[in-house]
Design goal:
The protein has 194 residues and is mainly α. The protein has one domain: Butyryl-CoA Dehydrogenase, subunit A, domain 3. The chain has 8 helices and no strands. α5 packs antiparallel against α8.
Length: 194
């Protein structure tokens, strides 16, 4: 009799486990896989994954938290780039013209940071808004403007007698934040908000 009960309990347990397993979503099973899958839709997937995987614990499998992390990381990187470029502008041996071009570049990056901060604020408030589609359009517009500002930073270098070393260093920094911004926009474009 006891043997029959054990078998009954075992069969019922297996049946329940199979039902639970069948009802689980087929989404990625780990946060890393979630981030990896999400980043595969971006223009720079390796950069995206390297940037966001350190935030895996806080992201979980939440697309909104993923976008928030991407924006925070991009804003942080942009601040570092603005600081680095400011130091370049203060170096001895840089001409007044080069300093002016670099100052314009810094201003463009600061504009980009402001636009990303607006996007971040809007994302953090959007869940309680009835005008989500309108807010998402604003976010996408701000992010697109941030990408333009990042690119405009180095446009001032064209046709100038600026040091190649200065151009290259600033160019590398700006390209990186442009890519981070592009990835953040790509993740935002995949949000479901209706």
């Amino acid at each position: 009799m006891m043997h029959a009960r054990v078998w009954t309990v075992l069969i019922v347990t297996i049946h329940l486990c199979l039902q639970i397993a069948a009802s689980l979503p087929t989404n990625p099973t780990t946060t890393y896989e979630f981030i990896e899958t999400s980043c595969s839709n971006t223009t720079y997937p390796d950069l995206c994954l390297n940037t966001l995987s350190p935030y895996a614990d806080s992201i979980g499998s939440d697309n909104w938290k993923l976008c928030t992390a991407a924006l925070n990381a991009t804003i942080s990187s942009s601040r570092v780039v603005a600081s680095t470029i400011s130091k370049i502008a203060r170096k001895k041996g840089i001409s007044k013209m080069e300093a002016a071009i670099v100052a314009d570049c810094i201003e463009n990056i600061r504009d980009s940071i402001d636009e990303m901060k607006q996007s971040l604020k809007a994302i953090n408030r959007i869940k309680n808004r009835k005008d989500r589609a309108f807010q998402m359009d604003n976010i996408k517009t701000w992010m697109s403007a941030a990408i333009t500002d990042d690119g405009t930073c180095t446009d001032g270098f064209a046709g100038t007698k600026m040091s190649n070393a200065v151009k290259a260093k600033i160019g590398r920094c700006v390209v990186n934040i442009g890519r981070l911004t592009s990835n953040a926009l790509s993740l935002i474009n995949h949000l479901e908000y209706y």
